[in-house]
């Protein structure tokens, strides 16, 4: 028996030539994570270095979603670039904190905060780490 599943919705905006904002809505899990991975890979191919992931409308994320965020972070570190997780819901923030993802990938409260870090030339890091200038 199949369980009804809300589809994932991803909106792509380009606030900067080297930055992409992906606004994600819906559950980010094993059934939907591949769609996010395709969007991220496409933006990497187009030369984006900074990935702003607005997950404010994601009520649930499992290890599939976390793994995609971590893999993207590892890929853009070599460029250098950054990954910013924006405004996670309490349940998602808890998972990010419990698994240690939030120790590696910057979590910010707003798109404006993420863009300010991009504009300042800082590569996204955990808030406790000193910023790295590009």
Automatic annotation (TrEMBL):
Residues 17-118 form the STAS domain. GO terms for molecular function: anti-sigma factor antagonist activity. Pfam families: STAS. Gene3D superfamilies: STAS domain. InterPro entries: Anti-sigma_ant, STAS_dom, STAS_dom_sf. It comes from the Bacteria. Belongs to the anti-sigma-factor antagonist family. This is Anti-sigma factor antagonist. It comes from Streptomyces phaeolivaceus. The lineage of its organism: Bacteria, Bacillati, Actinomycetota, Actinomycetes, Kitasatosporales.
């Amino acid at each position: 028996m199949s369980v009804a599943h809300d589809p994932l919705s991803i909106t792509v905006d380009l606030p900067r030539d080297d930055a992409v904002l992906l606004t994600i809505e819906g559950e980010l899990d094993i059934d939907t994570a591949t769609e996010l991975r395709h969007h991220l890979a496409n933006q990497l191919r187009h030369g984006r270095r900074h990935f702003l992931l607005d997950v404010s409308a994601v009520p649930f994320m499992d290890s599939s979603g976390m793994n995609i965020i971590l893999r993207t972070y590892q890929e853009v570190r070599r460029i250098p670039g950054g990954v910013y997780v924006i405004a996670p819901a309490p349940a998602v923030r808890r998972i990010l904190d419990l698994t240690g993802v939030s120790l590696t990938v910057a979590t910010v409260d707003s798109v404006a905060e993420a863009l300010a870090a991009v504009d300042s030339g800082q590569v996204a890091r955990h808030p406790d780490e000193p910023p790295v200038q590009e």
